[in-house]
Protein 1
Amino acid sequence: MKIVAPISRIEEIAPLAAAGADELYCSVVSPRWLERFHTSGISRRAFANLPDYADLERAARLADEHGIRLSLALNAQHYSAEQLEAALQIVADFDSLGGAAVIAGDPLLISILSRHSFRLRIHVSSIAGCRNSETAAFYRDLGAHRIIFPRDITLKEMAVMIDRHRDLEFESFVLNDGCVYEEGLCHTIHLPAKLGGPICLDQYQGEFRRLDGQPLSLEEQAALQNNEQDYQNWLWYRFGCGFTMTPAGLPYGPCALCALPEWETVGLHSIKIAGRDAPLARKLKGVEMVNAVRARLDQNPSDIRRFARDIRQTPDHCASGRMCYYPMTLPVRKEEENNLTPDVSEIP
Amino acid sequence: MNTPEFSLACTESITVRRLLKTPEAVCVRAWLPEADTDNPDWNERTITRIHLGNEFCERLLPEMGILETALADSRFAVSLTLPALSDQGMKRVLPLLASLPHGQEVIVNDWGALRLVRHSYPDLKPSAGRLLCKQIKDPRLPSAEWAGLCPSGIFSDPYAAFLMDYGVSRMEVDIPPYAQAADLFDGKIRLSVHLGYGYVMKGRMCKIGSLNLPPAARFQPGHGCGRECLEYVEHTARPTVSDLRSFQRGNTRFYAHDHDMWNAVRGASHAGRVDRLIIHGDWHEDRRPH
């Protein structure tokens, strides 16, 4: 399994490569783009983009010197027709620089790219929300080489898609950054903090009502309150345990280190560390954690999972399951599954 | 003046039955949200189509029986609405698609569902649902300038050509905040507009769907539920700001149209840019008829 890590500055390439990253991804927002479109929304990040094409050129050269592949994220959900033209030119330039792949989330952009004879590959962004085998086939037909799974699909669902499409590579999130809603179906802007910031962090307050117009019973009020408290706890984990780190500086946030043995078995191609906008130290710790688990993949899966859970030295967080991208990897969860309302995969 | 077709979107069987059995329920006035009851040219129009199904959750696929009942009523055309799907959800859709007569419309909200319809049910007529027609729809945006920062390409010629390559000749859209009637235009693809409410964002995990699960099972991908979304709605608001009214139904957040948005729909409809309006019969902030 290849480790895919983010960069936002070219100085990050050498240390991340040394730490074990096999592939890197970045985005670029040039003054030319800003002048023309008055927005940095070319890759869903207002910050953490390389500032100009010259930096992209240097990044491509440096990545090549370190023997690792560099992908360019052009993964907005949608572009205007004018932006698509400009994006196509960026891709052409990146191709001529020897770039490895473009990460795209807009099917129209993917369709346009595949009609050109670029050497670089097309990776379908998690933004595209590829959650079933037919959608994977749709993107393969369009010319995609790799599918990056969205967050919040199950390991079982991934295994089915990987098995049905051996002609595609698949990549999955392994560390950091958990959206509350599906990123490809969230049509908001991460506003400046004074306007509310990301909507999932904004100060919304909710009030439940019955749809039949009847008042909530005391039992209903208690159940809803209990569920809300649990939801707030889940959000806290979703947002990196309140955006904190372990005493040793290891990142919290959604984690799938325990899933590596299963991914190795089903043939997942690559694992992605999210967080273009994180500081280098966090990126490095992330790559080191993933690399340490990957180095043990010849061991017994339960030993690997134990090692993975011991890395942060925070057993309570790991045992909660709330910090997991895929909590179904927890041993206790497999026992509890017998007592649950069936998930959709079990509906006849 | 152009006159659009009106369709009633029904997630629940009970809504379909009410439409079919209650004489006054075929009138648009019976379903329009209160904000538009002063619209004289729409109120007396008749519902002539049913959008059957839910766009946001595969646990709410319609039962075969109610689909057959709707198809059997000659007063109404039927559009089967499909949500974003998992592989298992895709399997459950197959018998529904197989039961549809030649030429029936299917609203797809998933590129895989579009591919499935094209390859396995070429006699059906796919339309692109609003989950495939992406636009910025943040109900908090303070100005139209903000809305213009991330322009959508759905009304562009390349997007129309892309959809038409897949046999799609109609797309469904929301009215985003600050939209103008003139914004809703393609020219090649026919347009349907969702009336009254737009969707902001959809999750896979569902807060209300976790209500009756043990804590350790809540908020997981693919978790089970007791369809609590049919019982409860969460009204949402920021305490210090006056935004568009918003609410969470199931796994999805919605905003209610303000006066300007209603005017934008009316203008686009009168200008012939929109030829179908979709009224939500039960998937909104209040199940009771308006």
Note: Residues 87-98 of chain B form the longest helix (12 residues).
Protein 2
Amino acid sequence: MAFGGSDAGGPGLGTSAVKVLIAGGFGVGKTTMVTSVSEIQPLRTEEMISAISNRTDDLSGVEDKRTTTVALDFGRITINRSLILYLFGTPGQERFWFMWDELATGALGAVVLADTRRLDGCFASVDFFERRKIPFIVAINNFHGEQAYTTDEVRDAADLDAEIPVVQCDARDRDSSKKVLETLLQHLIARTMRAHAQAQTQARQR
Amino acid sequence: MNGRESWYDDDAGPLVRPFTVTRGRTKASRTDLNMITMVIAAPGESGRGLDAEYLDILRLCRSPMSVAEIGAKLNLPLAAVKILISDLIEGRYLLFSSPMSSYETDVPDMNLLQAVLDGIRRL
């Protein structure tokens, strides 16, 4: 990585950052999970999203373009002296955050939180990450203390690939949320190793 | 970076003119800033003479700070804070780090992933 001011010279900054997204349906506990592992009180940031609405003017046929403000909460984990991990809880207004390109760009991966009382709330997020080819795991938030579905049932319902981990968690609990992030990182490492192995096999075959 | 006669030389460009927050601009001149770009105040840079919004940013950036954190702490939307940070980088008041490799390639760096995993385990 390179550091610089307006030119490439100058003293180094020495710190860079990566991000992980915490997604899922409304009220599933995204901000709760961010709060339980973040070293800072979660902060809130806003972005203006241009959305083209379906409503069209009958006479002109011109699409109605409007701007909406989307807010999200995020936390921070200092990984080491030169690396910071940001956790972004995706906003509740799903149909808007899907248009927030920058949020997804460059994310290491995502945790899709699922609430078994409203399992369909996580489907849109699963679709989104699959389409964007952003690696993710699914964590079932059992904060209400009942495991209504097994991980396999959730996997079937969301039609997930066999390689995608599905785990149970309690987003309020720091250790449980840590475990979820660990599972995500292990999944990312396993994927990367497979990709490297595949590339080597292909190189040999050439 | 240092030893300039004054901050309002010709090279500073639009920085020298007084303005209110972004002066109606909606796009940052730098397009390489994202929400987790880390910035830090240039060493020995007090930003004397700059407008209050810029000074607020410089004060926050005595230690490395992300664009998103600066926006949240100053209660500014990302689009606006990027414009201000962009101005400060152009004026050499701020240094920034370019994105991690995962922004540029599909396959993330193994050492990076391992470092993140180790960091989470240490929490």
Note: The longest strand of chain A covers residues 63-80.
Protein 3
Amino acid sequence: MTLLAPLIAGIAAAIAIPALVILYFLKLKRRDVEVSTTLLWKKAIEDLQANAPFQKLRNNILLILQLIALCAAIFALAQPEVKSNSLGGGRHVIVIDRSGSMSATDGGADSKPGGVTRLEAAKKKALEFVHTMREPGLLDERGDEAMVVAFDVIADRLANFTSNKAELRRAIESIEPTDAPTSFVAAFQTARAFARVTLAEDKGLITSGGATIHLFSDGRLPDLEQLGQSKDLAITAEDKIVFYPVGSPDTWNVGITGMRAERAFEEPGKLSIFVGVMNSAKEPRTVDVELRIDSRVDAIKQVTIPAARLTESTTGDEAGGIRASNKLVTSSSGVVFDMVRPQGGVFTVVVRPPEGDALAADNNGYLVVPPAKRLTVALVTDGNLFLREVLDGLPLQKLDVWSPAEAQERFKDGATPAGYDVFVLDGWLPKIRGADGKEVPGLPPGRFLVFNALSSPPLGLIDQGPGEATTVINYDRGHPALRNISFDGLTVNPSRKCSIPPRSGVRSLAEGISGPLIVEATDVGTRALIVTFDTLNSNWPFDAGFVLYTAQGLTYLGSSSGETGALVLRPGQTVEQTLPPGAANARVGLPDSSRKDLLVSAEGRVVYGPLPKVGIYTISWEGAAGGTDTLAEGRVRRIVTANLLDPYESEVAAVKADDLKSLMPSNISTGQLQAGTRRLWPWFLLLALAFVLIEWFVYNRKVVV
Amino acid sequence: MLKTASPTRPKSIEDLLDSQLVARLGQLDITARKVLSGKLKGERRSKRRGESVEFADHRPYAVGDDLRHIDWNIFGRLDRLFLKLFLEEEDLSLHVVIDASGSGDAGTPSKFLLMQKAAAALGYVGLANLHRVQVTAMGGLNDKAEPQLLSMIRDLRGRRRLVDLVRYLCQVEPGGPCNFTEVCRRINLTRRGKGVMVIMSDFFHKAGYDEGLRLLVGTGYEVFLLQILSPQELQPDIGGDLRLKDCEDGDTAEVTISSALLKKYQANLTAYCSRLREFAGQRGMGYQLVPSSTPVDELLMDYLRRRGLLA
């Protein structure tokens, strides 16, 4: 127990207690009572008063009661409080994990699935923590301050630093679970950014340390190691992290970790749905995998997923020693649904473990498959044999080959020739009118697979001349055009030195030493995959990856031709769609059947996000329809799906505090909250009041004659 | 103990004596341990020979004797004159003294009210038995609300004088101090005959009660003391820091009530009462301590009959 104002209480006690006793001793105010005679009383007083100056105070219950009440009031003035060991005073950042794994239902006291969610348990712990925070005293303003940050893949600051507990409680209680993956780095950056800045009255914003980050999570933080790797994110001695674990390390889960639809090149009507499922239980699990097409059950397959394996790993502990630990490695299996289905549809895959599992968000997967279609492609080349051969080998509806001169005629005045899904441009770009009115090589509306040509900004790159020999340093393995392609053996010499202009619709898909090697340029009506180097200056044409890239690139661009088809996103991401000109009254239908209105920008863009939950999001509007859009109830609909598809998030076993310590740098400790009374001064004030009432009662009983 | 702010005063005979009590009182008489000579003929046997129908003795005739009392049967047999003597029946003097001082009026129930009721009841018994009844109020206030030494009504005889007795009792206004010794001296000087005197008071007289009682004892009265105390005087129920004010002389005592003080008070009260009882016993006076909460019928039928004052 500590006293916030011991000096004030001491001074008050030094004055008030002797004053009370002296007042009692010297009290002159007496109540007059008329009696029949004072004869016997005087005699009694004479007998008693001999040599007893403090006789009046002896056995005086009223004085004792008043002294107790006074002491209680003085003690309340000292503002005593009992604190839990989690508090050291000062500033705190409450960071609460709301990611998909926090929806696991093992947050109860028994840690068994089927109880409260981990998020609920984390919020409860956080509320208890807020309860233990030291409040500002009556006579000074020093008290604990805290801010609230909720995070999944992004971090939201829900309450800035405040000592107002009601505001902090409101912020904590407002946290809703999401199905998004986890990024602790984002939360840590946010927390530290606010934790280190203080608003001083005379100095403005100043940087200060000392804020403690209180992390309420199940410990499933995949990017935790980045904290130690990046200089900007390095934890310093000022960053004190207290970890409050929720959930059980023994909780298991079965979930969908991958989902993909593929049509055969040769026969686009043949459709295969690949579903990857995982099991984190220590026993094999047999689950039913159900496929629904447009809400109708189409097929059910049973699959047995092997048991998760324990692998031994060694880590260095704080003392510099080596600590061996067993790590659970989930096992996975797959199911393939083959069918002949030229038409598209909304495909839903549901995994049903007979015993039920801890996390429901990953038991469903959603996919929108566009109708089968053979592409009509125009190739503009000076005679690239490799490209011609690849395209000839693909099952296309039609392939027209134009020379650059012919193409220039057809792309006259910046117009895109009709009747083609994708244009493959080899070392040539059509001329379009630039911002300054001059004609520059660029991309008109349409779908383009570009090799060895750089379009001009804004939908293009800044050409900086020939670059040095390079290999692919990094590339986006998840992009549909680069899926299953290995760039390990690719060498480009010379490459093209270029850079992406800021605030452009261009993003890099593959990076070399001199700059991007493959980029995707997206605009209102344009989508293009651009290979910046000359393929003939590389060994790529001799690699199978070249064929795969061309085929997948055509499929990717083709499926999104005439406006986009289905997009598969993850919770936490933002949907950004371009609607046809004239679209109005746009809104998005959420998985929980609620609707939200969307604002359509002048360019026809609508943005919604971040997506909170897995499921089907239907964007609808009034106006013209795109190529793959459907009509329903007088509105045009476009469907976007969000799936968890995150093996790390699906492996819901909570990370033990010790394991987390080994992953994180130092300064992390495990917090144990203590429930109980924190502020004692109100109780002492009540005690004082109670004794005053008792004294009043006793006094009134005594004065009755 | 506290002086009653607005005490209930009796207004009529019904307030002092109820009919049931009167019926029971009719069977009682005042008793004296000694045979006392009265002044008038009454219903009590006298030491004297008189004219009642009850034969007492013979004596030789002397010149001047009433010839009607000569026993002619004896003269015929003995040829000597003898007179027949009969027992004489005389009245008894009943003197009731009540304390009408300020202290007598204190307490709840009021001590003075009990004294009034007891005086009326004893007076009725006396009147019903043809005794001479006198009631004296020590202290009290006169018509101008000024303190007086005493007031009295005397020479009441016969039931019909009960009205006068009650009227007097109702008009006595208690208050002021009481000079007990002086009152006793005045009673002694104005006494008529011998009889029974009942003194009702709290006997809280700062000048002492010894001298006054000694004056009364020597007059031939059979004195009976009724010390009437209120429950608040017997068991004080007060607390806090008080300034106690004497309702008679305005004397004050500052006290802080504590259990020790209360114990001391109780001890002093017990000693005071014991001393009065011993004083009375040594001088042949009867003594009885009566709480003012005692019903008047219980006082007469139980207390005073047990003490032999009534029979």
Note: Chain B is about 35% helix and 25% strand.
Protein 4
Amino acid sequence: MSILSQAYTWINLKFLLEGLGVTLEVSLISIVLSFVIGLLLGVIRYVGIKYFSAIVGFIIDIIRNLPLLLIIFFTYFALPKTGLRMSPLSASIAALVVFESAMLAEIVRSGIIAVDPGQMEGARANGMTYWQAMWYIILPQALLKMIPPLVSQFISLIKDTSLATIIVLPELLYRAQIIYGQDTRYMLPMYFMIAVMYFIVCFALSLVAKRMEKKFG
Amino acid sequence: MISVLTNNWSTLLTGFGNTLLSSVIALVFSLVIGSAFAIMETVPSKVARVIAHTYIEIFRNIPLLVITMFFYVVIPQYVAPMTGFAAGTVGLTLYTSSFIAETVRAGIQAVDIGQMEGARSNGMTYWQAMRYIILPQAFRLVIPPLGNQFINLIKNSSVLAFVAGFDLMYQGDALASATFDTFNTYLVVGVFYLVLTLPLSYYMRHLEKKLV
């Protein structure tokens, strides 16, 4: 019992909570940026602009099929060779956005495909241009269909921020390691605590997704 | 880029082999564990469903790296020593099994309910019907999503690099720090991963189209 009270001092818990703050900050910025870019890339891939869409599609496939950890390493350790040096925070966000945009682009594309083609035909027959129909008719319906896979991807992103501990981003896992670095008996309490914190955030998000799905789906 | 490959191909190939080995072991075990929990989620017993659901939610909502580090640093302290490769593979198995359980459960529930009713009214027990009628149909439906889980598994196996698992990412990183040629080394490592994941990914897309 005394080990627990030594491990879970107010100072240590505050230190961890600040880490959770960094985790959430990086996640939120990456989610917003990769959603916008992923939406754009998904539409580009779907509409089939000659050559351009095929090239974009191939690059998306390459990125999707690489481990995120490799992209993080590359961003932080290899890009400085080309003169692009980033802080751990911006490197983490950059790597996450590159990877997640590619993952989201694929979700967006499948979401658009899942919308009944009659919707586009109807909108066009009513005098809308292709892009008006895409923006006002197709995308809103596609987005509703995408809610479950989108949210699972966001949950993955939050969990994946833990990989950035390798480039010394002071997020949750990194701070837990610092705390148990002082005393190895804190290992179990620290891993338990951060597991609970990650779980609460991710599980809560999945519950929100379920409710949204029921409400709109 | 070519010189990185020719000078270090045995190091990289060892890593490639370990990545493949860890992924295949984790795939086999997570298929077994995942399917078991998927079946538990669909049986009439409420206790079984709650246990399965709890397991799945726990491992789906905790980062793979945290699970893996737990086995690498905490388990040796209280239970038994564990190599990085073992800790990584156990972590991968538990994490992936929860995703496979969700996939297989969706497959079981996508099989027409009349199949179970028909099998039962023809005198099969619940488990006979599950084994001979429901599961074969369910697995055919979930082959593409399972394939995608395998791709994720291969990519996720890079967490072995955190626990000295001597996988492709670990070997690549060791090379990069030894030669200082981070740029070309990571590119080569990327190509190695793509050799595994890209064909698999295109094949799964092809299967998905065929099934629809």
Note: Chain B has one domain: 19-168.
